[in-house]
Amino acid sequence: MKKLDVNLSKMKECRKATKMSLNEMSKKLGFKSPNGYYYLETGKSKISAEMLANVALILNIPIEELFTEAERSS
After folding, report:
1. What's 44's DSSP letter?
2. Which end of the chain has fewer CB atoms surrounding its CB within 10 Å, N or C?
């Protein structure tokens, strides 16, 4: 069975394609420092569905682009 995972490298790639810095993205998402977003982008913190939706809106991409299929172990 397949499941969907957040594609963190795609998230980073899309941010960089817009020439948006970590600092700028963090501010748009309401973080006080760039570390807040950095931890999400690197997988050090879990990203909520609401936060992922906001990231997609800021990057002006469909949220589906931020997912990848992964094998689920039974």
Report:
1. S
2. C
The pairing of strands 2-6 and 67-71 is antiparallel
Total domains in the chain come to 1
Q: Which of 69, 68, 55 is nearest to 14 (CA)?
A: 55
Instruction: Give the SS3 label for residue 42.
Output: coil
* Predicted confidence (pLDDT) per residue in 42-61, tens digit: 999 999 999 999 999 999 99
Residues 54, 28: Cα–Cα separation, whole Å: 9
72 domain-assigned: no
Enclosing H/E stretch for 31:
none
Phi-psi region of 60 (alpha: psi -120 to 50; beta: other; left: phi over 0): left
